[in-house]
Amino acid sequence: MLSGALEQLSVNLYREKIHFALELIQNADDNEYDIGVNPSLKFILYSDKLIIQNNENGFSEKNVRAICNVNNSTKSKAEGYIGEKGIGFKSVFLVSDEPHIFSNGYHFKFKREDREDLLGFVVPYWIEELPYSIDRKQTNIVLPLRGSRSENEKLIQNINNIEASLVLFLKKLKTIEIVQDGNFVSQKITRRDEGKRTIIDHKKDSVQKTEYYFCFEENFSVQNVIEEKRQGINSSKVILAFPTKSDGSANYDTKPHTFAYLPIRQYGFKFVVQGDFILSSSREDILKDRSWNVLIRDKIAETFLKAVTEFKKDDKLKLTYYNYIPLESEINDSFFTPVVKQIHEALKQTDSVLSESGNWLKPSNLFIAGSEIRKLISNQEIKSFFSNKEYISANVKAKIEILEKCLGVHRFSLQEIFEFLQNTEWVKSKPDEWFIKLYFYLINNELWNREILLKSWKIIPLENNVLSSIFEGAIFLYLSIDKTYEFESEIRVVRKSLIIASKEIKKEEFLVNFLIRLGVVIPSPHTIIFEHIISRVNALNSEKCLINYKSFPSYIRYIKDYIESLDSIPKNLLDILAEKLWLKQHPNSNYYSRPPSLYIPKIYGNTNDLDLLFQGIETVQFVSDDYIADAEKITSPEKIIEYISKWREFFKKLGVNEGLKISEQEIEHFNTIIATKNIERITKLLLLINQQWQQVKEKLSKPLSGNIQHTKLCDKLTNSEWIPVTPNFLNKSLVKPSDAFVDKPEIRNILGNNAPYVIVDLQNQDLIKTLGINSEVTIEAVVNLGLKNLVKQDCLDKTTFVKMYTYLSQNL
Length: 812
Fold this sequence. Notes:
The chain is α+β, with helices and mostly antiparallel strands. It has 30 helices and 29 strands. Residues 8-13, 76-86 and 704-708 have low confidence and may be disordered.
């Protein structure tokens, strides 16, 4: 029966043969070493045997008796150990039937197959001769392998694949070597402790690797926990080892084993948990029903929180430790599931997350936000607006799932954006580039599934420095893509500088498409003219209302540009504009008049020189030259002429007068001009009457009771001395039309230079006839202008007299 029990404990206890190696490592760590000795353990691998060498102090009689006992050990339970049943060494029977021990003068072996006393597991057999392969200065365990060649090869391979991390929590052992065939060091594991950091150098097959760990421990009392296997122990500890990269940042891509001094198995944590857990007999799992183990488990979160306190002081880990935080989905054993929640809750209640300004805050006081939103809303603005809240540091490297779901860090959402955008003054203070970034954010974050909501937001800057949405009325994209007018601020039009800014950064197409999608429209000029300009004009009672109305000239500029773009202009449009519009006067530029009551001055290229004609007549008003004030910006003389010419043509279409406007008021102007006796001005007047004779003629008479009655204009033009003539016998520069002669060769042939010839070349015969200007020689003219003048001058030219008398003889 005893033999069977020993068989069960030493051979059938473990499912994996490699566990014997772990037990020997644990034993080596529990051994005693001289001062100055670097504790080390060496596995020398042969195809048929294994030699394990340890540089401990060596066996004593007490040690020999202990190793021969089933339930005895020289180890103190307070140290924490694995071999509760005193069978740590007995695990070698997994691979060997006759393990040999050579240490400090003791050399004996055990015989599993002893058929005489059946106690070969515990009864030592003395060995007389020492094999040459042992090191007499060390403790040597020689294990002849009993397996087949393939089994032994697999065992050797497994030993060669021992993880370097198994030395992590050993108290004394610093170095483990694995030697192939007695001379080739295939693997060497060395542990170095530097404060809270543990460094494991691992050289395998000439490949050198180094593992780094940040270690923290939490000591706690276990006096109130009743556990048979831990009687007499008053305190215990949990150690957490966090893998780091060579630069000191967190290495969370591994799933290391959980340890009870030596590896147990992986439970899903991204850090190493070391605790004095009570394990199953196979040493492959934790006994979950033990209050001792529950206590240790529940200390993991406390230790993690203690580690976070240190992480916060480390330049690398303060940015990367977050991914050590376990997810419930990662833990593969329900026993450790509570740890996840405990860690999460502990971190939620502490200042555990780094903010953008470098402060440590509770997760609930932080926002997760991408670079786009951070460019829109600064961290300082977050702090001011939400009070005590910030962005999480942009340098933090952490999975969103951990920050958001585990810790409760808030994602900066549409709701927070909306709250910010309600601060109208804050939004209005933003530059144009900011709005373009905002629109990009809204598009790229697929917020169009809430398009109606976005359309209600006041996020469109208007030219009048107002923020608006299309829900408050129609918004126009621009009046003109190329020009800026002064009345954009009067209508709901997108701020022009926003369009310009989008051009500069080559985002114009995006901006226009976004705004149109938001509901902004490109207006038709017809809509702007009739629904805004004309309606504004109609609200003004007279030109006095326009004195300080600075935007009104820009209305005219807009209408001019629109009419220029039309191939044909509807007559009714021009009639309406002539009737409704006001044009600025010159020189009284604070006043306005309707187009038909104004004249085009010479500065607009009017060759009729009306400026001179109406000089000094205060009731005559010209269009202001303010409309072409910007011509000075044009460098090309040809372009200037073209620009001014377009304005002149525009004014003519509106009914502004390039020549005379024949009206009762203008008749008084004629009187004034004629009264000046200024030959130059009167000559201008006659030339214009000649050009516009059909219009003038219509004003010369009017029907009255079936008869034609002459008007004042007719009387004035026919009875006044106003026709400019050449120097003559009468010695007058201005004469009545009836006294003037058309300058023709046949008249001069008879009258010579004595007659008053009209100095203007009048081609219109109807004008000459209507005014009564002489177009032929008359008897009166020959007598009064010719003969009398010749006599008065004592003229002796016989030929001249002959011409005159001949005319008289033929026409009397």
